[in-house]
Amino acid sequence: MTGRPVALTRPEGHPPSAPPVVAATGLVVQQGSTRALDGVDVEVAAGERVAVTGASGAGKSTLLLALAGVLVPRSGSVSFDGAPLSTCSEAQRARLRRSRIGIVFQYGQLVPDLTALENVALPLMLNGSRRRDALDAAGALLDELRVGDVADRRAGEMSGGQAQRAAIARALVTGPDLLLADEPTGSLDSVAGERVMASLLGAVRERGAALVVVTHDATVAAYCDREIRLRDGRVVGEASPR
Q1: What are the CA-CA distances from residue 157 to residues 149, 150, 151, 162, 194 (Å)?
Q2: Which pairing describes strands 234-239 and 75-80: parallel, antiparallel, or unpaired?
Q3: Strand 101-104 to 49-53 pairing
Q4: Helix (H) or strand (E) holding 144
Q5: Whether residue 14 has pLDDT greater than 50
Q6: Could you report the per-residue pLDDT of 83-127, keeping only the tens digit for each?
Q7: By three-state DSSP, how is residue 177 classified?
Q8: Distances in Å between the alpha carbon of 117 and those of 100, 135, 221?
């Protein structure tokens, strides 16, 4: 390995003419004296499922936050649906995350004082939907992910797997084009993790959304079409884990 950034090519089945949902070019993110990302190039096509792997500190979560527009790179660029995020204000990037970019964190991060149903409905209400319409849509999605029976429970009253599926429902309820998942099974046992991944993959496939999942777990990576390996903030390899 030379340690230099590796330019990624689109996998088979995604024609070059199709614009990527999200693309990063020459991405550099500085955190203190450390370059968390050091010249990363990534493209993700519509409907593609991509795993990002690497040791702790490799830059995986930083890449996810940069693709979401949460972190602003020191240099390089991130484009979503062909438009550079650098031209968007923070308010505009926040609106994108409430509508077209869904995010799932390792511990779900549900609002503790709200029920699962209210948590899932929240993005719709923030986007201006009527409460009743938002709750109806949230209930339908919880049923789809097979956690409709916990709709009236708060986060502390659910199992880890149930809470994580509710968090997935919240990320998907607005019909995003891109779902970003950071270690979605990292806090779960193997059985609950498999159920969460099955729910996640089934939901994004049904909607034709792209998925980028950060994981340490080779089993999770094997669910994806492509694996991107990071080391010390650089892309050092790409492969199909299947």
Answers
A1: 12, 9, 11, 10, 21
A2: unpaired
A3: unpaired
A4: helix 131-144
A5: no
A6: 999 889 999 999 999 899 999 988 768 999 999 999 999 999 999
A7: coil
A8: 20, 7, 30
Q: Which helix (H) or strand (E) holds 180?
A: strand 178-182
Rounded Cα distance between 36 and 227, Å, is: 19
Q: What are phi and psi of 49, to 5 degrees?
A: -115, 115
- Contact partners, residue 130, CB within 8 Å, separation at least 6: none
What are the domain boundaries of the chain? 22-239
Q: What are the tokens at 145?
A: 């992910």
Instruction: Give, in order, the Cα–Cα distances in Å from 209 to each of 44, 73, 101, 188, 236.
Output: 11, 25, 10, 24, 26
* β 178-182/101-104 pair status: parallel
For 18-64, write each residue's pLDDT tens digit.
679 999 999 999 988 899 999 999 999 999 999 999 999 999 999 99
| Reduced DSSP (H G I as helix, E B as strand, rest coil) percent helix, strand, coil of the chain, to 5 | 35, 25, 40
d(CA 165, CA 116): 10
- Apex CA 28: angle with CA 49 and CA 218, to 5°? 35
The identity of residue 87, as a single letter, is T
As a whole number of angstroms, the distance between CA 208 and CA 153 comes to 30
**CATH top-level class of 22-239:** alpha beta
Mean pLDDT of 69-74: 93
Q: Is residue 9 within 8 Å of 45, Cβ to Cβ?
A: no
Residue 173 pairs in a beta bridge with: none
